[in-house]
Amino acid sequence: MKTLIFPLSLVAASALLVGCAHRHDEQSSEQIQQNFVPGLGEFMAQTAARHAKLWFAGQARNWPLAAYEVEELHEGLEDAGRYHPSHKQIKEPIPSLIAAHMDQPLAKLEQAIAARDPQAFIENYDKLTEACNSCHRQTEFGFNVVVRSTSNPFTNQAFGTSE
Ligand code: HEC
């Protein structure tokens, strides 16, 4: 009799354990979802995509799309600073670094786009790119060098105007 009870209680105990582990898994994946914040590097990869799209929008003289990409760059960088107020060895707060490097070049680009001025767009685009790199150098990430895109990787989006 004893030999029968022992294995049965083992089965019951392991069923209980499996149940607990299952519930635990569910809770932690919910928590992970709630707490998920992309890393600063992820925000930056997104920023780099928008930076490239901005170039092709400007080259196509698609001013509404260019204005949109500048706005998205601004918002994405603000989120990067909001979710990463500090980062690794960097001493300065990320939001102030972003404001110091990005606010002026982004505002200048907005002006060039509003004026539909292709030459001012190119000049200010290059200044923005240089400002990305100056923040990288200041934060000891100078090995991340941003340049103008030479070919468009986003073949699933139309950059020319539909007008
Ligand atoms: C706070 C100043 C700052 C500004 C402004 C900034 N970056 Fe960064 N960037 C960083 C830091 C810090 C990292 C490294 C993050 C990490 O630890 O992964 C980075 C990383 C990157 C990377 C590498 C990401 C990867 O996955 O390979 C790219 C690309 C990048 N930035 C593009 C840009 C572009 C484009 C701009 C301008 C529109 C820009 N960054 C503006 C600080 C900045």
Structure report:
- It is a single chain.
- It is built from five helices and no strands.
- It is an all-alpha fold and 163 residues long.
- It folds into two domains: 1-36; 40-138, Four Helix Bundle (Hemerythrin (Met), subunit A) (Up-down Bundle).
- The chain is globular, with a radius of gyration of 25 Å.
- It starts with a helix and ends in a 25-residue tail after the last helix.
- Heme C binds next to helix 2, helix 4 and helix 5.
Tell me briefly what this model is.
The chain is mostly helical. 72% of the residues lie in helices and 0% in strands. It is built from 5 helices and no strands.
Overall residue-averaged pLDDT value: 89
Distance between the termini: 86 Å
- Largest sheet at a glance? none
The total tally of domains equals 2
**Radius of gyration, whole Å:** 25 Å
The helix tally amounts to 5
Question: Low-confidence spans: pLDDT under 50, at least 5 residues?
Answer: none
Helix content: over 70%
Hetero groups in this structure are:
heme C
CATH topology of the largest domain: Four Helix Bundle (Hemerythrin (Met), subunit A)
Key descriptive features of the protein:
163 residues; mainly alpha; iron ion binding; single chain; binds heme C; Four Helix Bundle (Hemerythrin (Met), subunit A); 0% strand; Cytochrome C; 5 helices
Task: Walk me through the topology.
Layout: H1 2-35, H2 40-59, H3 63-83, H4 94-114, H5 118-138
The chain binds heme C.
Heme C binds at residues 40-41, 44-45, 47-48, 51, 73, 87-88, 94, 97-98, 101-102, 128, 132, 135-136, 139, 141, 144, 146.
